[in-house]
Structures are given as structure tokens and as C-alpha cells.
Design brief:
alpha+beta, four-stranded mixed sheet, 40% helix, 21% strand
């Protein structure tokens, strides 16, 4: 397959950035790179444009570095909360992937981050907090705190009347009984203190 050398005028993922001189298939350059104005042929005349392309590349990379640095500061202070279904033993069904984290960042915080920049050694499969590495730029990395909560409601414990409840009720009954005992003797004494009634005498009529 014939190869040709080109000068990239824009950043092309997997190929290079502007001002890079790369070898590509002649058909790829002719049918895609040149029509899309992503590259120009490597000629003596085009080599004069290299300095301008390098200057534009430096400005773009500096702007990207500053933007990603500010984004990294914001992400490091955030906590992304996700929910997952769990069984009765608290174990998750399924796992959380970098794609799910990217989707939730966009949904919750309106931050569009390529899932390829979210690096997980393996999908998250446990509830709780996790530190996730984000490689936003070749020179900018940060970590994002991800908390996974259970979406399955826990069963409510049955309400039981403990000894404390019974203990609180017992003194109340005791106070009532005590009050009754206090009242009864008073009534008995009041009956004793009443003077005896005098017998009625019949008046004789003469």
C-alpha cells in the first residue's frame, strides 16, 4: 500500500496534532484528510506553514491545560452519588462502569467528560465511597469521589414493647393505687369524728 507524508493542520485522534508530520496511506490522505482539511501534502511550500501551525498548537494546548486544570479542581471537591439495586445481604446487582459515571456527571452536574478519561481498574461492585482517577489531559489528572447507595429500601424493624415501656406504665398504676390508699383513711377518720346523733324525744301533749 502506497504511503505519503502529510502535515496535520488539526488534531486527529490516533494520528497526531497540528504541525505533526506523519506517514499515512495515500488513499486515506486523498479521500479523507485532504477533503476534510485536516492535513496538507508535505511540500517545500507547505513547510513554510509549519511555524504558524506550531504556534496555533501551543496556544490550543495552553488553553486546554488551563481549562482542564480548573475542571480538575472542581471535580476534586465533588461527590458523585449513584444508586444501585442490592439484595437482602447488601450486595449489588451488576456494577458501575466508567460509562455510567460519565453519564451521571453530565446528568447531575452538566459536565461532559469522555468516558475514556475515567480510569477504573475494574467496574465498581460494592456500596460505599470510591476514589476514581480522571486523566483529563496528558498533564492533568485528578480524582473524583463516587458514592454508591442502595436503591433497595431496607425492611423496617417490627415495633416491640420493651421493658422500658412496661416500666414507665407500672409507676403510673402505682401512683393511682397510692392515691386511693391516701384517700380511704381520710374518709374513715371523717366518719369517726362525726358526733353521735341524739335520740329523739317525744313531747307529751297535756
Amino acid at each position: 500500500m502506497a504511503k505519503t507524508e502529510v502535515i496535520l493542520t488539526h488534531n486527529v485522534i490516533g494520528l497526531g496534532a497540528e504541525s505533526d508530520q506523519v506517514k499515512v496511506a495515500a488513499g486515506y490522505a486523498r479521500n479523507y484528510l485532504f477533503p476534510q482539511r485536516l492535513a496538507i501534502p508535505l511540500t517545500a511550500a507547505n513547510k513554510r506553514r509549519l511555524e504558524a501551525l506550531r504556534h496555533r498548537r501551543a496556544e490550543r494546548e495552553a488553553h486546554e491545560f488551563n481549562t482542564m486544570s480548573e475542571l480538575a479542581k472542581s471535580l476534586s471537591r465533588m461527590t458523585l452519588v449513584l444508586t444501585a439495586k442490592t439484595g437482602e445481604d447488601g450486595k449489588m446487582f451488576g456494577s458501575i462502569t466508567s460509562g455510567a459515571i460519565a453519564d451521571e456527571l453530565k446528568h447531575q452536574f452538566e459536565m461532559a467528560i469522555d468516558k475514556k478519561k475515567i480510569h477504573l481498574e475494574h467496574p465498581l461492585r460494592a456500596l460505599g465511597e470510591h476514589e476514581v482517577e480522571l486523566r483529563l489531559n496528558p498533564e492533568v489528572t485528578t480524582s473524583l469521589k463516587v458514592r454508591i447507595d442502595s436503591a433497595t429500601p431496607l425492611p423496617k424493624p417490627a415495633e416491640t414493647r420493651g421493658p422500658e415501656t412496661r416500666a414507665k406504665e407500672t409507676p403510673a398504676r402505682g401512683r393511682v393505687a397510692e392515691k386511693t390508699r391516701e384517700t380511704t383513711p381520710d374518709k374513715a377518720e371523717a366518719k369517726k369524728e362525726r358526733p353521735p346523733r341524739k335520740p329523739k324525744t317525744e313531747k307529751r301533749v297535756e
